[in-house]
Amino acid sequence: MYKVLICDDDKDILDAIGIYLAGEGYAILKASNGNEAVRIVENEDVNLVVMDIMMPVMDGLTAMAKMREISNIPVILLTAKGEDTDKVLGLNVGADDYITKPFQPVELIARVKAQLRRYMTLGGGKQENESTLTCGGVVLNDEAKTVSVDGENINLTPTEFQILKLLMHNPGKVFSPKEIYRMVWEDTPIGSEGTIAVHIRHLREKLEINPSEPRYLKVVWGQGYKME
To answer: The domain containing residue 155 runs over which residues?
Structure first.
């Protein structure tokens, strides 16, 4: 049974999300601020976090940054309508997805299932026979779920891993932001350009010696991204 941590300072929202996800068979853990959420991630075997951004004691973005120091579990941020800056900041510090309030239960459940599926299988039945992909000094081991650059291990979020795996499976092929979003998120790519751009920038910061002059993760202006 997967453990899902829900973090929100609004008790009604906390309880409602708990009911939705418990109905899908998930074990639920609850926190009312970011500090509590970080402590739970440190001490419990959590598989996914759903967390609000605006909270007392410790906000969701600060908690996200602290979580990423100790764990790569998927995190879905809850944002208020119009908090576009917070969405980008959330993706920058390691969020895998976000949901804008108010949201429908079916959307929340679908996104939780998609993130857990990617986290636990990172490709599932679409994997090819070889478990190791190599592109220059970048080595991705799909069985061990590890990535190294010039022999140094790097930590990727599940979403970053999936994007990199897609590009490394198809070296030289250009994928548009909409194609990447459709294949990785398995969702309709509405407004996907900004989301993909943030994840690509984050990947470059981890993969490249000089992110502004990338050796591996290249942009083809007006078309998309590719691995060389």
So the answer is: 125-227
